[in-house]
Amino acid sequence: MNQLVKDIQRKSLRTDLPKFQAGDTIVVNYKIIEGNKERVQPFQGIVLQRRNELEVETITVRKISGGIGIERIFPVNSPKIESIEVKKRGKVRRARIFYLRDLMGKKAKVKESRR
Amino acid sequence: MVGIIGKKLGMTSIYNEAGDNIPCTVIQAGPCIVTQLKNKDGKDGYNAVQLSYGERRLKSTNKPMTGHFKNANTTPKDFVAEFKNLRRYKGVENLKLGDELDISIFNVAEWVDVTGISKGKGFQGVVKRHGFHGVGGQTHGQHNRGRAPGSIGAASYPSRVFKGMRMGGRMGGDKVKVFNLIIAKLDFDNNLIYLNGAVPGAKGSYIIIEK
User: Which one of A1, A39, B66, B128 has the fewest CB atoms closer than 10 angstroms to its CB?
Assistant: First the structure.
């Protein structure tokens, strides 16, 4: 993307979100509009990756629900994200931990780091 | 049509008030300089305004064009385009030679048409160029002709191939116009237009936006 547009976007980014990276366990509180009612739906899982940059940045969050893996992709700077809480800091060696998809049960755990 | 010339910067996405993610093309447009006025009762015989945009070095501008820009009291420009009947629109009726036109002629949520030169694709086969479906499978004795065009006509009658038969060839690099894109955002400080959707052409290429 053009440098001028990048500089403009950098000013309008959200600053209220905590720092997190791949391997961390987070809760994304996502606003959902049903009819004319608005409610917040929490989604807790492990961050697989952070992708793109600035206003178009997204995160992929994976959780196991009823034995089935569920992944959701959230735009980080979306106003629909009410808040993000970091539950655990994970210790991983790479920025994109897709190998987690192939692991089941106890192996599909990320070691906690003492950051 | 009232319009303006711009340069495509690339694509990004922005969020509207409802929080929806809108894919956008960012175009740096204007301010354009009026370099020629054509009048119905003048020697041109029709009403139009010629706009110019983008800097060009004096060294790489030829002499006739240097003089043309000098008449409008401006520096040499890189891209020139003509807009018919532009002066019919409100606020731009009294444009003079050398006047500037910027993106204030547009409003957010307005529909615009965008013209650009599409990206060159080189020599392409009929599947990519004309949307032929190819053979459709690898079995039934197809060997290596999965993307071949097939028959291009009958034999002894008409004994020729009809004109306009779709075949492989150079693709892209054409003038393409996209209709009814919506302006998602206007940035008057930086002369940026955010258009909802894609726009023909490579990054850095010149684009004409009209409404």
Answer: A39
